[in-house]
Queue: 4 jobs
Job 1
Amino acid sequence: MALPKLGYLCLSENPSGEEGRALVRQFVLVREADRMGYDDIWLGEHHFDRAWPTGAITALLGHLAAVTSKARIGAMVLTPALRDAVQLAEDVATIDLLSKGRFEFGAASGVAFANTLSACGLGPAEARQRLRSSLALVQDLLSGQPLPGGDAARPVTLVPMPAQRPLRVWIASDDEASLRHAASQGWGLMAAATHSRARVRRAVQLYTEASGGRAPALVLARFACTAATRDEALTIARPYFETFAAKARAAGWGTSRERSIAGDVQALVEESLVGSHAEVAAQFHALGTAYGASRVAIVPTSAQFDTHKHILADFVDEVRPLFDE
């Protein structure tokens, strides 16, 4: 099994409650990650949450394309249910052109964020249905097919078209219908940093069965903190996990421990990439062998700029050289 590619998932941590400052600092980190040699850089989409002010994700992805030059860039994830499908196709094609074909299109139904869906007048069933129908239209448009319902004599097609054709699609989901649909389309899978081991394995198993034995390409996000010793890494990571778990419990995330570890501090420690440099290198390698992860996107366990940057640097300078040993 090939070693997973090393990626970075950006949440635009906002500990001071200053959204503009948080976004500017995030893109300073993005430029550093691109310079350091990260294979992928991903942006997460969150709405109505000052802790992670990334609701305007397509605008942020356009900026991400501008400030990077080597790393592939992607959405982890976009929510098609909240967007007009034609506008989404135009945005995706434009981002892919601006990045010179480096864009990775991740999508999800949004059912994990019930309050966001509710605020937009959507329920889980409708959001899942819109995920599939919107992506079907977006893919048709990105492949050059005309808008449906138009004048057959004067068809309307998407402008601009993406640099990549076809454009890779990744889905974050664990409901059986969506996974079977993803398998039928050959899409990749995504799993969040809070998804439990059992949930990831189940999603991979369902996909593999539905595809007739073909395992999915998998992007796996994981919280991460590496240091000279495990105790030092835990000293940095545990306060972050305690704050995160308290927020998750207050928001109602992770009510099923089998599906999510969001509210469980000890599980977050155990299922994340936390430890000495050698321990984290072994943990990273195991994500490929245990889950078939083709890409691992780390989320540094600190909202403090300097510590966050230090974790990013240590993964490249201290952990990555151990991958080949």
Job 2
Amino acid sequence: MLSPFRMLSGKLLAFSILLLGISGCGSSKSAFTQTGEGSYYADKFAGRATASGAPYRPGKLTAAHNTLPFGTKIRVTNVRNGHSVKVVVTDRGPHAKGRIVDVSKRAARKLDLIDAGVVPVKLKVLRMGPVARSK
């Protein structure tokens, strides 16, 4: 039979672990968001290798971002009309001042940004991709 002290200390330990688990479940940090201008890839890049090594496919839902890890899933929202699309970061860029994202042509259609070419957008990270390891 366990002593009352050991029973109490075991219960306190279990309670402490439970409290730590509950406090860890809520995100104390807000998800990464960013606002700026967004544009889309020109057709001339179709089939060319992206920075991740994957070929650019205009019919896929992909994007270029300067710092987010490859494989990161983000929601891009056209601030002008509220249209949004989920894309995966597969490339680096955009390389134009003030722009924060370049999306594939399919994503651009969903955002209704083809005619405008550049629109104000908001990004939100939905799932962070793997962080590249240094060699």
Job 3
Amino acid sequence: MNKVLAILGAGELGKQIANFALKDNHYSKVCFYDDFNVGEEINGNTSDLISDFNNKLFDEIIIGIGYNHLKAREEKYLSLKNKVKFGKIIHSTSWVDESAIIEEGCVIYPKCVIDKKVIIKHNTLLNLNCTIAHDTVIGSSCFLAPSVSIAGFCSIERECFIGINTSIKERIGIVSQTTIGAGTVVVKNIIKKGLYLGNPAKFIK
């Protein structure tokens, strides 16, 4: 595929996304932009990114801001969505039902399973080996760590972090800006944002 991808964020996450983009043949070239770092591999900051897109130096963008800054991830998306074209990466080893909807800016890492009528909103990232069952909605700018399992008819609102090996039972709702720690089992709705841990999940702070 002869397309150039810009990644906003040149840290470890951005480099992981670049690796998948190139090795899984989604893009032929990757360039980096970063508002906080400079270096030979970084083409500039957000302002340079917009200018370079208008000058057709790249085709699409994906945001490489990680789970510690999900609010910033969402804000960057909203500020750029009408100024640049967002891409999407779904790794070739993942299985996605034809009825599922994965919006722009999303990255689906290897060996994920996305069942029928799932909706994954813009700018969300699913790490290795996540399973999302039927009729579940994952909100915008969420970050799912490896091996998260979410049952059917769930609703995860925007800017949530779901930790590694978390399990969420069917028909659960999780409010925006919630953090679920590693190995947590969620069996009741979470209506108060904060940090949750344990089996079953308990509010920590």
Job 4
Amino acid sequence: MLRILLVEDDPDVAFVVSALLESADFHVTVASDGQQGLEIAMQERPELIITDFMMPVMSGLDMIGRLRAQGYERPIILCSAVAEESMQRDRYLYDVFLLKPYRSEELMSAIDRVRTKPGP
């Protein structure tokens, strides 16, 4: 069972996405901001992280940068209502970008893509 960390500050989005992932037989842990996500990721080492970009306390990109600096090499999906072009300098940090709002099919397709990538 794939262990996913979902980092999302909107409780409604977190509820819907985690329910979708759990119905697909994934084990989901939810964090409500980047700092909490960073702490959980370093402790639990999930096989995949799905994170929002704009969040209180610490942004998704800041969290990803810190994780990568600490050797976290597993796949990360970054989601945002902000166009990806504004994040080009940090593009190397994450594996897939999803523009919000995304459809459930887009999320599941992104998960399939990162699961088939060779990795550690």
